Amino acid sequence: MRRDLIAPQYQDDANARAVRVSQELVRLSVVELRSMGLRRASRPVPEPPYEPFAIALTPEASAKVAQLPDSVSVSAIVQEILRR
Fold first, then answer.
1. What is the pTM of this model?
2. Is 82 exposed, middle or buried (0-12, 13-18, 19+ CB in 10 A)?
3. Among 9, 25, 30, 46, which one is most buried in terms of CB atoms within 10 A?
4. Residues 7/39, Cβ–Cβ less than 8 Å
5. Is 48 helix (H, G, I), strand (E, B) or coil?
6. How confident is the model at residue 7 (pLDDT cuts 50, 70, 90)?
């Protein structure tokens, strides 16, 4: 993910990232998540600089991710969630 595109409160706080992402994954519908993940997944070339982030998900959030089609970019969804 691009650290410069993440809201300041999530840039250096892994716990805050995990809480926010899990809450939003559970709150949003599969249709909304799919739309978020397809917008960015359609880009032919990623925009650098990316750096790896691990996000711990709740079981409910993991179950929601499991419902998404393979063509959806979960990374794009997480990036969009953490922008706000």
1. 0.84
2. buried
3. 25
4. no
5. coil
6. very high
